[in-house]
């Protein structure tokens, strides 16, 4: 094999595929964007035409494409900022879409040790039965661009450590993906505990209160009976912006204590 196996199956990966689906490219023209707050770090937007080579053609054009097709009828109005009411079934398949996007985007993220956050068995279980990895949360929100005719698209990841003993002992890692396209945004967070630590709590790190509280709505594992989208939107910049309001909330997670050393 010239390439490592597909992240979801044993086929060889390596056929270049678009990160973002054709239906989105056919709908609007996306412009690259770089974001910066004050003199903070610049967040470099991705090339809208970005390709990936970590999945095989069978997966990409098979079950992954089916997840995409199931979600077009909801994602399309959301991308274009057309109001839509989401029911629990819709929120369930949007969750699958967001987790798939997070897994794929994470597979091309450069890391020091070149390892992925999601374990292979988590990805295989997702392909096999759309099992959402344990200790995962998913939120959805709206995003208003300063120029309403300019659309952006991207997926950005950040990792955080889970510490106990007043920050002395590292017991695990969390990985957050923020996915935005046009006027919608999703955020996913998955936490892994390092053996021997176990915990029955679903999620360990909860971001402190902030602008995301009224702008991000949880659709997994809790979901409302009905969700009227759009909610109060994020902006491109400022306190309610993508950098401070969405990414920033994960830089000050609260410490947790209900963890056992098994
Ligand atoms: Zn595959």
Structural commentary:
This protein has one domain (17-261). The termini are far apart. Helix content is 24%, strand content 26%. The chain has six helices and 14 strands. The chain is globular and about 45 Å long. A hairpin with a 7-residue loop joins strand 2 (34-35) and strand 3 (43-44). The strands form five sheets. Strands 6, 7, 8, 9, 11 and 13 form a six-stranded mixed beta sheet that branches. Strands 1-4 form a two-stranded antiparallel sheet. A two-stranded antiparallel sheet has the order 2-3. The protein has 262 residues and is of the alpha+beta class. It binds zinc ion (ZN). Zinc ion is lined by residues 6, 8-9, 11, 55-56, 58-59.
Largest sheet: 6 strands, mixed
Low-pLDDT windows of residues: none
- Domain unit count: 1
Tell me the fraction of residues in β-strands, as a range.
25-35%
Averaged pLDDT: 88
Q: Mind telling me the C-alpha Rg?
A: 18 Å
Helix count equals 6
- Total beta-strand segments: 14
What would the keywords be for this entry?
two-stranded antiparallel sheet; alpha+beta; 262 residues
At a glance:
By secondary structure, the chain is of the alpha+beta class. It has one domain (17-261). Helices cover 24% and strands 26% of the residues.
